[in-house]
Each structure stands twice: as C-alpha cells, then as structure tokens.
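Private note to self, pasted from the team thread so I don't lose it. Backbone tokens:
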C-alpha cells in the first residue's frame, strides 16, 4: 500500500537568495516562487495531421506489493521561507497513525526516479501564448528531473486524450506539444482521472501529476467530488500550475479556478502555483522537479492492522536539528485501509 501525504504550508519569499547549509546534517535549497468529456467533432483531434515519433523504450518491470500492512508515503520538508530541506535522518521524524505513535521501519531520502503524468490544457481558454509559455517552462522541469523519470502526456479540451504513453524521452514530449491546437471546452476532471489511472501503471513507486491549466472545468463526466475522492485514495501527488491571463486574475472564473487547483493539489499532498511571469513559471517547474528528487520516503506497519476500509489519519512531526528554526512537513493526510487487489 503506497501513500503520500499532505501539509498545507505556504511558500514564502526568502530575503536571501543564497542556499543555506548546515555543515553537519542538511542542505536547505533555494526558495520557490510564492504560490498561494467527449462530445465534439472539433475536439476529436488535438494534433495537426503528422507522423508521430515513437517514445523511448522503458523497462517494463512492475512492482509487486506483498506486504499490504506496510504504509509508505512521501514527505516534503521546508523551512520558514519555503526552501525544501534535505539531509534529515530518520530520528528527526515522528509518525502518528490515528494519534498513535508508530515505529518507522522504512526510511529513505534517495534521489529516485518518478512516473510523471503531464496533463496539458489545450482548451479555448488557453489561447494566446499560454501554451507556448507553459511548454517552454516544462522543458526546465524535464532538464532538472531524474534521468530515469518516465512520462505520460495527456492533452485535454472537450475530452482527455493520451498523446504519449510511458516514455523516458522528455524531448519527445516537448515535440508533441508543438502541434497542439487550443479549442473547445475543458474536461479537466476527466484528464486528472485518466492521469491517475495511467501513472499508477508506471514503473516507479513514486508517482506525480503535473496539471497545467487555468483550473476551469465545463465538460467533464467526472465531478469535482469524485476526482477529489480518487486523489485522496491514490498514491499520486498532484502539482498544479495555474496559467492565468491578465483577464483571469481577480475575476470570478479566475478565483474559482484557483480554488479548484488548490484543493485538488492539497488533498493529494501536492501544491498549486500561480506564476505571474515567464521567469517565475520556469522557476516553479524547476522547483517541482527538485522537490520530487529530494523527498523523504517513510514506511511503518501499524500494530493490529486490518483492511477495514476506514480512513486513517497520519500526522508527521519533525524535530529540527539544534540551531535550526521550525521545519514544515507536507504530505498526504491519511489513507483508506483497503486491501490491494489480488
């Protein structure tokens, strides 16, 4: 049973742009930028007619979960200024399951690869240079990511369409986005649902979605609450990048879109970002890539564990090393104790 966790900490600007280091224990990284379905013939093709390049081959080994009582999840640790903190040891973490302290049996801060689903909004509301700017920023994510990451590409307007299925060739993903056309309505919830389903078939235990959208949905078969439930149950972390135009900022649609992205990202253990400039967008994509490479993986076995189908709340406390201020964990807040299918 693989889980990820949540903490609703806010990013803050750092008065000093330089990395902070503790010589004996940990590294504090530079801060991120502050964040705060089918029906149309027109949407039957998201791409201009052209020959598609095949993706790179991927190791097809799948992971088999044997011990269903092992609860594992990832934790991102930041300081007061939102800089993620690496180098902490197991003893710095205390884990509670339904208010009962647990013994940590698995702990790792290894730089491990991720199965990443890229969900790209190509609806009419993403017209202008929004797609171009987002694609350029995505290239920074790919350049910064682990070289063994695998990618799934889903574009969506009135329906969600899988454009690339599991490839390690990040450049092929970027090339595919050269030919998308913005048009029609937005099936954002359907795209997220498809993204969760695809990355859960991925090679790597760590799984994440990058949702690039303005947050507005008007054409999904799945509802917001259904998607929220799926994200809450899954082991997939969602990072949302809100691409808002000048007319979106402060408008009712813009505020609604931000609320949707905030909630979907938060319940999954991820975070939503709202870049104001192209430079901020580049920084955000790089920050997400680095965060995925510097997360802590924690596992424990609750005594007398039963697959009762109930929600179990997780709480993480961190004891900062001497001389360091308070640290903030972000993680998915719990799990449903459901047996893995045979």
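Design output:
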């Amino acid at each position: 049973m693989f889980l990820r966790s949540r903490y609703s900490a806010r990013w803050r600007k750092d008065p000093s742009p330089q990395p902070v280091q503790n010589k004996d224990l940990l590294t504090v990284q530079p801060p991120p930028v502050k964040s705060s379905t089918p029906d149309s013939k027109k949407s039957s093709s998201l791409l201009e007619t052209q020959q598609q390049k095949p993706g790179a081959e991927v190791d097809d080994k799948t992971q088999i979960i044997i011990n269903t009582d092992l609860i594992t999840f990832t934790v991102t640790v930041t300081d007061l200024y939102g800089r993620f903190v690496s180098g902490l040891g197991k003893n710095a973490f205390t884990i509670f399951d339904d208010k009962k302290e647990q013994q940590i049996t698995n702990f790792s801060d290894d730089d491990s690869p991720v199965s990443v689903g890229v969900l790209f909004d190509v609806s009419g509301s993403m017209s202008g240079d929004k797609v171009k700017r987002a694609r350029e920023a995505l290239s920074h994510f790919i350049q910064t990511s682990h070289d063994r990451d695998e990618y799934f590409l889903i574009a969506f307007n009135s329906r969600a369409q899988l454009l690339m299925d599991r490839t390690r060739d990040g450049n092929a993903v970027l090339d595919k986005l050269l030919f998308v056309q913005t048009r029609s309505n937005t099936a954002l919830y359907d795209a997220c649902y498809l993204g969760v389903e695809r990355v859960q078939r991925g090679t790597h235990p760590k799984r994440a979605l990058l949702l690039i959208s303005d947050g507005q949905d008007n054409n999904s078969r799945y509802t917001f609450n259904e998607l929220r439930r799926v994200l809450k149950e899954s082991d997939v972390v969602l990072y949302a990048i809100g691409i808002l135009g000048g007319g979106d900022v402060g408008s009712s649609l813009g505020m609604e879109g931000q609320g949707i992205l905030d909630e979907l990202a938060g319940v999954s253990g991820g975070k939503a970002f709202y870049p104001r400039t192209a430079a901020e967008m580049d920084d955000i994509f790089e920050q997400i890539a680095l965060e995925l490479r510097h997360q802590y993986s924690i596992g424990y076995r609750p005594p007398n564990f039963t697959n009762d189908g109930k929600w179990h709340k997780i709480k993480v406390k961190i004891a900062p090393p001497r001389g360091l201020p308070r640290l903030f964990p972000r993680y998915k807040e719990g799990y449903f104790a459901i047996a893995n299918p045979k």
